[in-house]
Amino acid sequence: MIFRSFAYLALLLLSFWLHLQLSSALGFAQQWHLIWGATPHGFPEFQYLYASLPRAILALSIGATLGFCGSLLQQMTQNHLASPLTLGLSAGAWLALVVTGVWAPTILAAHGAWVAMGGALIASLFIWIIAAKQGLNGFSIILTGIAVNILCATLASAFILLHEQATLSLFIWGAGDLTQTDWHWVKWLVPKLIILPIIMLIAHRPLTLLKLGEQNARARGMSIGVTMLVIGFAILWLIGSAIAAVGVIGFISLLAPNLARYLGSRRSLDELIFSSLLGAILLLVTDSIAVLAGQYSDQVIPSGSTATLIGAPFLIILLRQQMKASDHTSLQLPKSLFTWSNRTALVLLALIGASVLFSLTYSPSYSLVSHHTLWQFHWPNQTLWHLRWPALLTATGSGIGMSVAGVILQRLIKNPLASPGMMGLTAGSTLVLVLYAMFFEQAITSVNPIIAYSGSLAALCILLLLGRKHHFAPGSLILTGIALTAAMDGVIQFFLAQGNDDVYSITRWMSGSIYNVTGTKSLWLIFCVTGFTAISFVFRDWLTLLAASDPLAQSLGVRPQRARLTLLILAALLVSSVTAFVGPIAFIGLIAPHMAVMLGAKKTAQQLWTAALLGTLLMLIADWLARTIAYPAQLPTGIIAAVIGSVYLVFLMIKSQSPH
C-alpha cells in the first residue's frame, strides 16, 4: 500500500513535469525560478507562467476529479462500466450548457457549474426512472444511459446548428480542451473541488458496506437512500464544475477506476484515492499527447479527443471481459400488433403519397404585410419545385437504403439492435469521407462513394471480429459499436475544433442534411439503393435460412459463411450509398425493421419491403419537420431522425423493464 502510494505519486510528479516540458521551451531551472516568484521577461516566460503552468494544474485537477467521480459511480452501482459518459451525465450537462449559452449567456457566465449540474441531474433522474427496475449493476442502465446520451447530444447539435454564431466557441469546448485555460479557471475551479477530500473520507465506509449487498448494508444500520443522495449530489456538482471549466472529457472517469482495480486496489478508500491519482496521471498524459500532436500538426488538438482515442479501445476490451450471460437476451423485438395483409401495403403507400403531397403543399411562409409566419396550402412554384423534388427523392432513397440494411443486419446477426448506426457502419463511412476530404482538400459532398464503401466494410469487419466472442449479444454489440463510433469521432474532433466555415459544412453534413443534394445526385442515390435492394430480394431465401440456423442452410445447399459475407457486404453497400450522398442517417435502420414486425411482417420478403416503405415514410416526415419546426431556419433531416430514433431506443429500454 505505502509502496504503491509512493509509486503513484512519483508517476504523477513525472507526468506533471513532462507536461510542462512539452508545453514550454524554457529550461528546468528557469521554470523553477518562475514558480518561486521570479519576474517573467519575454514571451516564453509569460507563456509558461500564465498558460502552460495553469493548464497543467487544471489537467491534474480535472483528471483527479473525473477519476474520483468514476470510482464513486462504479462502487455505488457495483457496475464497472458506470461513468458520467456511459450514464449520460456528461451529455445532459453539455446540453444544459449549450442551451443556456444560446438563450441566457449571462447566466452561463455567472453560474456555469450550477447549469451543468442541473442538466446532469435531469439526465440522471431520467435514467434512474427507466433502468432502476433491473438494478444498477447490469447492462440495462448502461444501455439506457447511452440512449439518453445520444438524445442529449443530438439536441445539442441541433442548437449549435441553429445558432452558429452564438456557439462558435463551443466547438472546442464541447470536444474537451485545456488550451484556452489560465489562472482564472484554476481559481474558479479549485474552490469548487474542496468537497472532494471530504466526500472521500465520509463515503468509503458506506461504499464498503454496499459491496456486501443492500440487505447487509441496511442490517448494519446504513441508510441506502440518504447515502445515494449525498454521493449522487457530490458527483453531479464535481462533474458539472469540471464540464463548465473545460468541456466534456469522457473516458478518464471510466478508465481510472478499472485501472486502479487492475493494479490491486481492493478496499473502497484505496480505490477512491488511486482512481483520483490515476485520473490525474491519465489526463496529464493525454493532454501532453494533445500538446505534442498540436505542435507537430500546427493545429489545436482537443484533449477530449485524445482521451477518446485511448479510452474507446479500453471500453471494447472491458466489454469483452465484463459481458455476462444474463446480458445476452436483455432486449427483444417488439411483438406483432397486427396481422400482415396486402391492405397493410396499400395503407403504407397511401400514407407515403399523402406525405409527399403534404410536404409539397403545406409549409410556412413569411408575410411581408402582416410580418407573421403564415401556414397555408399552396402548390410550389417552379423555383421551389426544383428545390423540393431532389430532397423528396433523397429522403425516399435514404429511408429505403437504411431500412433494408437494418433488416439484413437484424436477421443475419439475430440481434434486434443490429442497425447501421449501432454497429458502426455509418461511422466507418463518415470517418473515411471526412479524412479524405481533409487530406485532399475536397468538398465532402463531392467525395467518390467508393471511399464510403471501404470505410463501412472496414468497420463491419472490425465489429464482427470483436462480437464473435459473445455471439453478437445485444448489449455487448451496441456498446462495442458505440465505442468504435467514439474512437472514430475522436479522430474527427480536432478538425471540427478549428471553428472555421468548413466546420459548419462538415457538421451539417454529419447531421444528415439532404438539402444540398442535387437532382443528379438524388437520381444516382435512387439508382444505387434500388439496385442493392433488388439484389437483397434475390437473396431473401439465404436470409431466411441463415436467420433460422447454419446447419439448416447448409442442408439445403447454402454455404453459410459465403452467404453471410455476401449479405453483410450488401448491407454495407446500402449504408455507404446513403452516407456518401446524404451523410450519416442511421436510426431509420433500427426503427423501420421493428415497426415492420409490429405490423405483422414476419417473412423475410414481407419485412424487407414493409420496412422500406416505413423507412420512406419516416424520412419524409422527418424531412418536413426539419424544414418547418424551426422556420425560417432549417435543421438537418438526420437530426430529426436521430431524435426519433433515440426516443424509440429509450422506449425499447422501458419495454424491456416491464414484466412479460
UniProtKB/TrEMBL annotation:
Coiled-coil stretches, from where to where? none
Does the record carry Heme as a key word?
no
Intracellular or extracellular location(s) = Cell membrane
GO terms assigned for molecular function = transmembrane transporter activity
CDD domains recorded: TM_ABC_iron-siderophores_like (cd06550)
Domain of life here?
Answer: Bacteria
Q: Name one GO cellular component term.
A: plasma membrane
SUPFAM superfamilies named among the record's database cross-references: ABC transporter involved in vitamin B12 uptake, BtuC (SSF81345)
How does the entry describe its membrane topology? Answer: Multi-pass membrane protein
Q: State the InterPro entries in the record.
A: ABC_BtuC-like, ABC_transptr_permease_BtuC
* Chain segments annotated as transmembrane: 53-73, 85-105, 111-131, 138-162, 188-207, 219-237, 243-260, 272-294, 300-319, 340-362, 389-409, 421-440, 446-465, 477-496, 523-543, 564-588, 608-626, 633-654
Biological process annotations from GO: siderophore-iron import into cell
Q: Which Pfam families match?
A: FecCD (PF01032)
Q: Which UniProt keywords apply?
A: Cell membrane, Membrane, Transmembrane, Transmembrane helix, Transport
- The answer to whether the entry has keyword Cytoplasm is no
Hey, which family's this protein in?
Belongs to the binding-protein-dependent transport system permease family. FecCD subfamily.
Name the record gives this protein: Iron complex transport system permease protein
Q: Which organism is it from?
A: Celerinatantimonas diazotrophica
